[in-house]
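Course assignment 3, question 2. Fill in each field.
Student: A.L.
Task: Predict the tertiary structure for the chain below.
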Amino acid sequence: MKYLRQFMVIMMISFIGELLHYFIPLPVPASIYGLVLMLVLLETGMLSLENVKETGLFLVAVMPVMFIPPAVGLLDSWKDLKAILVPVALIIVVITFFVMAVSGHVAQFIIRHRKNENEEEQEEEAMEIIKERRSNE
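Answer field:
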């Protein structure tokens, strides 16, 4: 029953994303609206991670299966794709390396930023301990 409730929460947020897509005249896919809405709800605490965690993990685990229908669709379109195979393959390779590089730089930035915050917190704690010891002496 817990999984059904969590799945319904995810589906409701996706449905709200569909409504936003319908009512907001921007060229943004409904799934993006849903993802942003989910992020906002989780970050603000309006939705607890525990309310969607297990079902979210399950959906991520079965995600590769979701790529089978598009792959079959590509096989059906082989005659059309054959003429542009080299440019498409080149674009895919270039974009893949670009995304990897940008993701790596963003991850390094976040790690460094968190490391600096942790070091500052540790320095503050050490200073407080030193002040406490001096005041006790």
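Instructor remarks: The chain has a mean pLDDT of 90. The radius of gyration is 24 Å.
Grade: pending
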